[in-house]
Design a protein that fits this description.
The strands form seven sheets. An eleven-stranded mixed β-sheet has the order 1-30-2-3-6-7-8-9-17-18-20, with helices on both faces. Strands 4, 5, 21, 26, 27, 28 and 29 form a seven-stranded antiparallel β-sheet that branches. A three-stranded mixed β-sheet has the order 16-10-19, with no helix packed on it. About 30% of the residues lie in helices and about 15% in strands.
Length: about 950
């Protein structure tokens, strides 16, 4: 579809929607094969009723649903149960297809919807057991109040579904019904809880880094791997909380257990004498270093690659796991703002989806009392009651991903009877799972579980041999046919995060906010806080979550030996009261953007894989510049900061690029684009287009071509020296053709701010070996920094000539850097004409990787947008009706509905919408009014 660059009038929108509906019907009738079952009425039948009166069984009294001009609902009720029952009904009206896909994902039941192609994915998800854990939470852990709210929500969803054929719920069901007669099942409370497991999976921390470091050992030395995972740059990028002293650190935790102790054992570790890859002031290899250097062999590489591919097969409901998954959130004290009260901004960076992962909503008790305790508005997930991010009548809060290391891979020595633990053989816990397949026969799998989690290696024939070549010490057990791999992950233990959501929604002050955060066990997040109490209001921060205490010398950067009990987590976690927090810091603001949470003197190990702080430091700098000499920050200033497009790596690298002696006049013409450039990445900038192409080529030449195939882009082939240990010594090093194996949006080097810190010290070392290239792309080898930069500039010139044309004045960053929104499932895997009609885009975007306006792209794979600020909000604390917000798409999940993507044009331009909260403001903005009656 053509790029969306303007906003249509409401009249034009309505006319365009009618034309698109007609186009869809004509296209399907013309030749897709669905034509006999599709019509204009089929497309429009699922559109919800938003005015008048409807009956909703189970209500104790009437409920008002008021929608504004963008279809955002505000719900008013007189009891908690009525409020959440109505929330379920309204979300099902707008988004049930999305809800149904999500619950089939979290339950490992996608094959029931989409057929045999999803069996392997379902098998992996069943092995993880998200839905089983969610059921256990509901049965044994969550409070009775939370369960009442979940039941009320489910009843509301089911009331909407009652009496409706699938074709009347969403147009996508018409296609499914044509292929295999799919029927919708009732919604359950556990379906809502399980979504938190999917959220935790996508925000799980450093598992991919753990795998990647192991994969790198086939081609890189331990020293080189350390180069690619440098220490966190505390001297230039400040942590969230500075100087935090954990009360009672080093004493017994709140769980009544000491930190896990030492012990001997072997595992996938760095070589003796190398400081390892630990970061943030902690070096792996300190204390005990159980690993030994050595060639891990092709066996291990293929097995770890298979694990990586198995992980990639799990649908990333939030986005690609890695440097880009993050978010910005910051809060400024009232003494620095024009309002005299705090301002709070938040924009989570997640995968672009259609509809957006977020759903905007207000939940209001007509009178807050013991029987109705909520007056809250913000962003939630379709399929889950409550509000996840937003504000109530007293406080505001925002989330970013903390990035704590809450997963570990364990090598397990297994036999037919069980697995080795210490000196004893322990039997597996086993269960059978039956996977039903639409249009095919059911499949049965056996899940085997150890004390350190399920055996994920059982899901791959390659992984059955994992560890055949693993570099372990002589004290490790005989490898025989290799070691299996298990996954230990905090989200596989029942927790109380659903309780935390409702507590956050009701919190009235920082004490109650922290009490709610105590229950937010997974995923571990950075929570920022603000209220309007007192002269200037209050601001705060809390890091919640279950974060394991590991054995001394084990920092979670590489797989651990499962046979050594010293490496077990058991139930030892960092005590909540020792997790970082602060209230009203002297500086008057708090910034969280996935940087290090604490300094090097913090006593607990949270992760060795922080984000590197490029965005966070830019936000710090912007706030400091604005408040210098008593300046004040406004709501619009906060919005402007959210859309800051500056590039830190461009500021660092461009001066060197301008000094490179370029002889080719065409390359020199492109080089001149960088003269006078201010390093901002606007959509219409030719300089931003050329610089980012140069950066991509620098990364490929200096690093990408030296990485193993398991990390490079699928199908991208190079002639590289063989490292196969099975060939004779005299044949080692011969050139072989080797092609990449990883999806483009997950390949390395991705160009994130980790790579900024990799490159930064190399720029002062002009002859460093990383600047050497072998000419495996059929170019002349390079030996120095400037030679490689010249090659990158030349490569970028001809790459953009091919993509954007010969005339550099017509180049623009937005033409390269485009957003495409894809409808779930059928928008990615349906027939081409259906994908065309259900998807939207492209939009030409400003921003970039590691910019505050984080429209992320993967430098290894191309320039297309792979994660985005999935929403933006700026909360004017205390004067709630002056708050502003925007969603990536719109309120509706129904293709061709006026609210399908009606916020996207404004979002792309960095604009925000009014966010009414008070009764008067909601009524003033009201366009539709629906009354739900008992």
């Amino acid at each position: 579809m053509p790029a969306n660059t303007t906003v249509s009038s409401p009249k034009k929108k309505g006319r365009r929607a009618r034309l698109l509906v007609i186009a869809l019907v004509l296209a399907l009738v013309a030749g897709v094969g669905y034509g006999a079952y599709w019509s204009v009425s089929t497309v429009r039948a699922p559109f919800p009723q938003t005015t008048g009166t409807l009956r909703l069984d189970g209500l104790s009294g009437p409920v008002d649903v008021k929608r504004d001009g963008h279809g955002v609902p505000q719900v008013y009720a007189s009891t908690d149960e009525d409020l959440f029952r109505a929330q379920g009904y309204v979300q099902a009206q707008d988004r049930f297809w999305e809800m149904d896909v999500r619950r089939h994902t979290t339950a490992g039941r996608l094959s029931e919807m989409l057929g045999k192609d999803m069996v392997d994915t379902d098998a992996f998800l069943r092995t993880l057991g998200w839905h089983r854990v969610a059921q256990e939470e509901y049965d044994k852990v969550l409070s009775e109040e939370t369960k009442r709210n979940l039941r009320a929500y489910a009843e509301g969803v089911n009331a909407y579904l009652k009496g409706r054929a699938p074709r009347d719920v969403s147009v996508e069901y018409s296609a499914l019904a044509f292929s295999h007669g799919y029927e919708i099942e009732p919604w359950t409370p556990v379906d809502s809880i399980a979504w938190l497991k999917a959220m935790a999976w996508d925000l799980r921390g450093n598992m991919q880094d753990e795998i990647d470091r192991s994969l790198m050992t086939s081609r890189l030395t331990p020293r080189q791997i350390r180069d690619l995972y440098p220490d966190y740059p505390y001297e230039t990028h400040r942590p969230i909380v500075e100087g935090f002293k954990a009360p009672g650190a080093g004493e017994d935790g709140e769980d009544g257990e000491d930190a896990a102790g030492g012990g001997e054992g072997g595992g996938l570790r760095n070589g003796a004498g190398d400081p390892g890859t630990g970061r943030g002031g902690r070096e792996s290899g300190t204390g005990r270093n159980p690993g030994t250097a050595g060639d891990p062999g092709t066996g291990l590489q293929s097995q770890l690659a298979a694990l990586s591919e198995a992980l990639d097969s799990v649908p990333a409901l939030l986005g690609p796991n890695g440097d880009g998954i993050g978010s910005n959130s910051w809060v400024v004290s009232g003494r620095h703002t024009t309002t005299g009260k705090p301002l709070l901004a938040n924009d989570p960076h997640l995968a672009p989806q259609l509809p957006s992962v977020w759903y905007q909503m207000g939940l209001h008790c007509r009178a807050v009392s013991d029987k109705c305790r909520y007056d809250v508005a913000g962003y939630t997930f379709a399929g889950m009651p409550g509000v996840v991010i937003g504000h109530n009548q007293d406080i505001a809060w925002g989330f970013t991903n903390l990035g704590a290391d809450v997963t570990d891979l364990y090598l397990q020595k297994v036999t037919d009877r069980g697995y080795l633990r210490g000196t004893k053989e322990v039997p597996f816990e086993t269960r059978e799972e039956v996977i039903r397949v639409a249009g095919g026969s059911s499949r049965t799998i056996t899940v085997r579980t150890t004390n350190n989690g399920p055996l994920i290696s059982d899901r791959s024939g390659e992984l059955e041999k994992v560890g055949q070549k693993a570099p372990v010490t002589n004290s490790a057990p005989d490898r025989a046919d290799g070691y299996a791999v298990s996954l230990r992950w905090t989200a596989l233990d029942p927790g109380k995060s659903m309780d935390a959501v409702f507590k956050l929604n009701r919190a009235r002050d920082f004490k109650e906010f922290r009490a709610a955060a105590r229950d937010f066990e997974v995923p571990s997040q950075n929570l920022v806080y603000a209220d309007a109490k007192g002269a200037e209001g209050n601001i705060g921060y809390q890091a919640p979550g279950k974060i394991p205490v590991r054995a001394e010398g084990h920092d979670g950067t590489l797989p651990a030996p499962g046979w050594d009990p010293a490496y077990d987590w058991e139930k030892t976690y960092v005590p909540f009261d020792e997790l970082p927090y602060e209230e009203n810091p002297e500086r008057g603001y708090i910034v969280t953007a996935n940087q290090a949470v604490v300094g090097e003197d913090y006593p607990h190990h949270l992760t060795a894989d922080w984000g590197y702080g490029s965005r966070s430091q830019r936000i710090n700098d912007l706030i400091e510049a604005k408040t210098k000499d008593g300046g004040k920050i406004s709501t619009d200033d906060m919005r402007t900061m959210q859309t800051d497009n500056g590039s830190e790596i461009a500021k660092l690298l461009t001066p060197l690029l301008l000094k490179v002696d370029v002889s080719d006049p065409h390359v020199r013409e492109a080089q001149r684009l960088l003269e006078g450039w201010d390093y901002t990445q606007e959509a219409d900038s030719p300089a931003a287009a050329y610089f980012n192409a140069v950066w991509r080529n620098v990364l490929k030449l200096a690093f990408g071509d030296k990485l193993p195939k398991e990390l490079r882009v699928e199908g991208e082939c190079l002639n590289v020296p063989s490292v196969d240990p099975t060939v004779p010594d005299d044949q080692r090093g011969r050139l072989v053709r080797e092609c990449g194996r990883r999806a483009a949006d997950k390949a390395q080097p991705d160009g994130g701010d980790r790579w900024y810190e990799v490159v930064r010290p190399l720029l002062e070392d002009e002859d460093n070996a990383w600047w050497h290239t072998s000419g495996n792309r059929l170019d002349a080898p390079t030996k120095t920094r400037d030679q490689l930069l010249a090659r990158a500039m030349e490569g970028a010139r001809w790459e953009l000539t091919a993509q954007l044309g010969k005339d550099v004045s017509t180049w623009s960053w937005g033409r390269l850097h485009q957003l495409n929104l894809r409808n779930q499932t059928l928008g990615t895997g349906g027939p081409g004409i259906v994908r065309y009609l259900l998807n939207r885009g492209p939009w030409n975007l400003s921003g970039g990787e590691a910019a505050v306006n984080a429209t992320g792209w993967n430098a290894a794979g191309g320039y297309g947008v792979v994660w985005v600020p999935s929403m933006r909000m700026v909360v004017t604390v205390g004067d709630w009706d002056r708050s502003r917000w925007i969603n990536l798409t719109g309120a509706s999940g129904h293709a061709y509905h006026p609210h399908y993507t009606d916020q996207t044009d404004k979002w792309a331009r960095g604009e925000l919408l009014d966010w009414p909260f008070s009764d008067g403001a909601v009524d003033a903005a009201k366009v539709d009014h629906l009354v739900l009656k008992p």
